[in-house]
Specification:
heterodimer, A: Aconitase, domain 4, seven-stranded mixed β-sheet, 7 helices, B: five-stranded parallel β-sheet, five-stranded parallel β-sheet
Chain lengths: 170, 427
């Protein structure tokens, strides 16, 4: 299998050190479900972002350093997908968030995000490791290896293993 | 080009000659652990796959430690589900009071040098004390391991930290790791593996080595790993571990950084309230009163910690207005402390013992709640506001020596200034 995954969407900006437990899970909203959290996620950091992504029919979150740091809630990935987030682009990711995103079929792209502005149109090619922004910025990341591309294209690690229980998918 | 310890372990488990930091590999797992905080989702995911035999069940333990003993029916029901799952699917199970996952796994002989071990808890880095690659993962990850015995990993970059010199008596691995948090900041080594080497590490007993690796979680490390030596092998043999595969870095391995730190003049360190990286030397603290002293957790609930506390409190009483709770990291440690007479010494001094588990660390057991305005001094690894459920209490972190010395005087106290505070482990 030679996966080619491309993602397009408008950029929605967040800053450095976004804690996804705090801003994108029900850890501090006991009893609230994914739908509720998806309508209010990141409200403190960027008022209206959930509604704006919804109006745009989806989008790409662009952040600074350490997106998801200090946070391990796997629910954050479910919330982001529910919000219509198609990928996260950041300068770096918290370790467990990075795993959770891939395991739940949400593409993550690590590169320099300087100069990308709110609302610009982005095209990510995860297999090639390139990001093109409509202001003609092109950034490169490590191309994601075939295992990760396969997991993403199946929608996450569990669906991937249901199809390829021995991890052999070539 | 040479390899670091984690690169070698990951290469061997991915059936490759060589792997390099940054690449992603699919690796065979040696052992997996699931705690009660992640069990419900994990069981749900596995049940979704149907009833086919779980090939990895014999290399998996479920550990009932965070809600131990259960504070409410919800937690008790989680435990019931775990016992049922373990029995029907053939995994191991450590029940309430058996101990904290990171203590019972090595004690149970489930891991050895060169192993790749995963657990649903950030402090799974503790296994690095035995030259194993241990790392924390989430529910989906561990479900995948139980179903396929493999998992994907991005190979981490490594920082090599050479701890030279000799720790002063009364100064412990806890103080080194708090000093590291002061230097790098919380999550300051996010995603990195740490190789701790040097004379100060070799001089440490296994208990202290486990503290050193355990606390690397607060630095954001994916792994913290030591070179094995005769002490490692002897400990593993005594606990029935399988034949070790000792793994060392090559002299020409690539590191993102190499640091040399002399620990000879290190004073006992403290994390001040609310921030795990707000670090000061104990000598810089003036008359800070405390009301509640806690010894326990996967960081510092081991036998040497309890011995150190007993050496300070033997034949004495806690200061007026101070209460103290000791939570051994495992039932084996509890029993050893009992046989050595440490429980009698500490109980006579006014301390209480709680059953082995995570209770001392986080307020979810609801039995160690501080009152409004209380200052807690604890051997735990985290001190976020409200960690013990009351946001109007402050939590400071220090070694078992510092906690016991402070419980004796009622103020945060340098253990080297009280009798028995310079007790040393026989290592």
């Amino acid at each position: 299998m030679n996966e080619h995954i491309a993602v397009t969407g408008l950029a929605f900006l967040l800053g450095d050190n976004v804690n996804t437990d705090l801003n994108c899970s029900n850890k501090y909203l006991p009893g609230k479900d994914v739908d509720y959290v998806a309508q209010h996620a990141f409200e403190q950091l960027s008022p209206g972002i959930a509604a704006n992504i919804n109006t745009a029919g989806g989008g790409v979150i662009v952040a600074g350093k350490h997106f998801g740091i200090n946070s391990s809630r796997e629910q954050a990935a479910h919330v982001l997908k529910k919000m219509g987030v198609r990928a996260i682009v950041a300068q770096s990711f918290g370790r467990q968030f990075f795993r959770n995103a891939i395991n739940n079929g949400l593409p993550v792209f690590e590169c320099d995000t300087t100069g990308i502005e709110e609302g610009q149109s982005l095209t990510l090619d995860l297999s090639a490791g390139t990001l093109v922004c409509d202001s003609h910025i092109t950034q490169r990341s490590h191309p994601l290896p075939s295992e990760i591309l396969a997991i993403l294209s199946m929608g996450g690690l569990i669906p991937f293993l249901q199809k390829y229980p021995d991890w052999k998918f070539a | 080009m040479g390899s670091t310890i984690v690169e070698k372990i990951l290469a061997r488990h991915a059936d490759q000659d060589y792997v390099q930091a940054g690449e992603v590999v699919v690796a065979d797992i040696d052992y997996a652990m699931v705690t009660d905080t992640r069990a419900v989702n994990t069981i749900k995911m596995i049940d979704r796959f149907g009833e086919q035999p779980l090939q990895f069940a014999q290399k998996t333990s479920l550990v009932l430690d965070h809600y131990s003993p259960p504070p409410n029916q919800e937690a008790a029901d989680i435990h019931t589900a775990m016992r049922t799952f373990a029995k029907s699917r053939g995994t191991g199970l450590y029940d309430i009071g058996d101990g904290i996952c990171h203590q019972v796994l090595p004690e149970g002989g489930h891991l050895t040098c060169g192993d790749l071990v995963v657990g649903t808890d950030t402090h799974s880095v503790t296994y690095g004390a035995f030259n194993a690659f241990g790392t924390g993962i989430e529910g989906t990850d561990v479900s995948a391991v139980m179903m396929s015995s493999k998992l994907w990993f991005r190979v981490p970059e490594t920082v090599r930290i050479d701890l030279q010199g000799e720790l002063a008596a009364g100064v412990w691995a806890k103080d080194i790791t708090l000093a590291m948090l002061g230097r790098f900041g919380a999550e300051g080594l996010n995603y990195h593996a740490i190789e701790y080497v040097g004379d100060a590490v070799r001089a440490m007993a296994i208990d202290d080595r486990m503290t050193l690796c355990n606390h690397a979680a607060e630095l954001g490390a994916k792994a913290a790993i030591l070179e094995p030596d005769e002490k490692t092998f002897a400990w593993l043999r005594a606990h029935g571990a399988k034949t070790p595969e000792p793994t060392f870095a090559d002299a020409n391995a690539q590191y993102t950084d190499r640091l040399i730190i002399d620990v000879t003049n290190l004073a006992p360190q403290l994390a001040r309230k609310h921030e795990v990286d707000d670090i000061v030397g104990v000598d810089q603290i003036d008359k800070q009163k405390i009301q509640f002293a806690l010894i326990g957790t996967c960081t510092n609930g081991r036998l040497d910690d309890i011995r150190q506390a007993a050496s300070i409190l033997k034949g004495r009483k806690l200061a007026d207005g101070v209460r103290m709770i000791v939570t051994p990291a495992s039932r084996q440690i509890y029993l050893a402390a009992l046989r050595e007479g440490l429980i009698e010494i500490l109980s006579t001094a006014g301390a209480s013992f709680d059953s082995a588990g995570c209770g001392t660390c986080v307020g979810i057991t609801n039995r160690l709640v501080p009152g409004d305005g209380d200052t807690v001094i604890s051997t735990a690894n985290r001190n976020f506001k409200g960690r013990l459920t009351n946001k109007n209490a402050d939590i400071w972190l220090g070694s078992a020596a510092t906690v016991a010395a402070s419980a004796l005087t009622g103020y945060i106290t340098d253990p080297r200034t009280v009798e028995g505070g310079t007790w040393r482990s026989a290592a």
